[in-house]
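Fill-in record for Dihydroorotate dehydrogenase.
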Amino acid sequence: MVNLAVDLNGLSLKNPVMTASGTFGFGEEYEDFINIDDLGGIVVKGTTLHHREGNPYPRMAETPSGMLNAVGLQNKGVDYFISDIYPRIKHYNTGIFVNVSGSAIEDYVATAEKINELDNIPGIELNISCPNVKEGGMAFGVHCPSAVAVTEAVRKVYKKHLMVKLSPNVTDVTEIAKAVEGAGADSLSLINTLLGMAINAEKRKPSLSTITGGLSGPCVKPVALRMVWQVYNAVKVPIVGMGGIMNANDAIEFMLAGARAIQIGTANFIDPQVTIKVIDGIKDYMHRHDINDVNDLVGGLITE
């Protein structure tokens, strides 16, 4: 019997496989395909203080080995989540995280305060890295002072697990990682989407209404792996890795690079059962390599 349980700075997950925000709804959407309770954790759709319509259409575009999105954090606000969504998902026997975003630090703080009162939500993922909003989001996550300011402000009011989601759209991701670690982050998740764009040559127009958007999928994996490895060697808090994970082998690569858990995003759109297949694939890998504890994979990259 292999041990799949991982510990994120005091928060225990039954296995290292989580879902990425914005790709798994609130979990309910996938109940026909998998047992949500089999997952290590889910990160529900991005939530803000107030209702947001998101960006105009078109806001998704297919790219070679990936996709661009510019949804813009469309959601009905935290109060709607508390009154209508939370009662329907609080029974899940998995780690439920709420992805929290905002246009100002005060928005982040107010949203986190409300979620802090929900008994069956053990953590939030502080989104300081979304490239698809005009205010807030990535603006906080690409400079150390602003990243520290929002993390410290939320840390003062949020008493449970605080995961901070980092942007890849920076010169040195380790600087931001060390800064938010010092500001009180319990763990770090990375990477969010890379800023990209697509053009319709026939129409001579951008493929997205916002011109630029967030690039995800297999094409970003080498960048994500590199950043996870760099951050692992720079901080002490656990890392949750993501970026182009399509199968168990991809997930294992992220763990070898230093991730204690992983999130699966774009792959959910292609195969709604991919998370379970990744869990089974990790078990198979452990059996084949005579590994009894999945934690032995973390940071196990041999570089000599």
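KEY FINDING: The chain has one domain: 6-46+74-195+218-297.
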